[in-house]
C-alpha cells in the first residue's frame, strides 16, 4: 500500500478521501506525519498556494502529497475575495467575512460568482493540478445553517437554495472541492 499525505488537519476530510482511495493508498494527514507547521500560503493563485503546501510536505517529509486551496470569486468584485476568502475582512472569521462581502455587494446587480478549488498532487517528483469550479450567484442575505464560510449566500447554478440549505451529501456531490477531488481520485486510480 502506497502512502499519500493529504495536507490538511481535518480528520473528517482525511477519512473520506481514505475510503475512496483504499486499498491502493494509505492516506495520512498533517497530524499523522507529525507536521505541526502552519504552512505559509504566500502564492498569488489557488494553484500556487496548493503547490506550496504539497511541496512543503514532499521536501520536509519525503512523502507524496496532495493539497488544496479554494475560495469564492465574485465577478463584480474583480474575482475577490479569491485567495483571500478566509480573511477577506482582515480577520479569519466566517461571519465577519460574509458580512463584509455583502456590504461590498450593496446595490450591485451583477451577482455572478463561483467557488473554485485547485488540488496540487506532488507525486514521483511531478506536480499534477486538478481544478473544480461551480458557478452560481450571491444572495442578498444569508439563508441556511449548514456549511461554513460563504455557503449561506452562495446559490449554485441550477438550484434555488444556498449551499447552507443543502444537506452535506448533495453539497459533497456538486461542490467545487468534490469536482476537483473526483479528478484527483480518477487520476490516482487510473
From TrEMBL:
Superkingdom of origin: Bacteria
Cofactor: Mg(2+)
Coiled coil start-end: none
Catalytic activity annotation: ITP + H2O = IMP + diphosphate + H(+); XTP + H2O = XMP + diphosphate + H(+); dITP + H2O = dIMP + diphosphate + H(+)
Cofactor mode of binding and number, as noted: Binds 1 Mg(2+) ion per subunit.
UniProt xrefs under Gene3D superfamilies: 3.90.950.10
Any Pfam family: Ham1p_like
Record text on subunit structure and interactions: Homodimer.
Free-text function comment from the UniProt entry: Pyrophosphatase that catalyzes the hydrolysis of nucleoside triphosphates to their monophosphate derivatives, with a high preference for the non-canonical purine nucleotides XTP (xanthosine triphosphate), dITP (deoxyinosine triphosphate) and ITP. Seems to function as a house-cleaning enzyme that removes non-canonical purine nucleotides from the nucleotide pool, thus preventing their incorporation into DNA/RNA and avoiding chromosomal lesions.
Family: Belongs to the HAM1 NTPase family.
NCBIfam families, per database record: RdgB/HAM1 family non-canonical purine NTP pyrophosphatase
Full protein name: dITP/XTP pyrophosphatase
Amino acid at each position: 500500500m502506497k502512502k499519500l499525505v493529504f495536507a490538511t488537519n481535518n480528520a473528517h476530510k482525511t477519512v473520506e478521501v481514505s475510503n475512496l482511495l483504499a486499498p491502493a493508498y494509505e492516506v495520512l494527514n498533517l497530524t499523522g506525519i507529525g507536521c505541526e507547521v502552519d504552512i505559509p500560503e504566500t502564492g498569488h493563485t489557488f494553484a500556487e498556494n496548493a503547490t506550496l503546501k504539497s511541496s512543503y510536505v514532499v521536501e520536509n517529509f519525503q512523502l507524496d502529497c496532495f493539497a488544496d486551496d479554494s475560495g469564492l470569486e465574485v465577478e463584480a468584485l474583480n474575482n475577490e475575495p479569491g485567495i483571500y476568502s478566509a480573511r477577506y475582512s482582515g480577520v479569519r472569521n466566517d461571519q465577519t467575512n460574509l458580512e463584509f462581502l455583502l456590504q461590498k455587494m450593496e446595490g450591485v446587480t451583477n451577482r455572478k460568482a463561483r467557488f473554485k478549488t485547485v488540488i496540487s498532487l506532488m507525486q514521483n517528483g511531478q506536480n499534477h493540478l486538478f481544478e473544480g469550479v461551480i458557478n452560481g450567484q450571491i444572495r442578498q442575505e444569508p439563508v441556511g445553517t449548514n456549511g461554513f464560510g460563504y455557503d449561506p449566500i452562495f446559490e449554485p447554478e441550477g438550484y434555488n437554495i444556498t449551499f447552507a440549505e443543502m444537506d452535506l451529501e448533495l453539497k459533497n456531490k456538486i461542490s467545487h472541492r468534490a469536482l476537483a477531488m473526483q479528478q484527483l481520485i480518477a487520476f490516482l486510480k487510473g
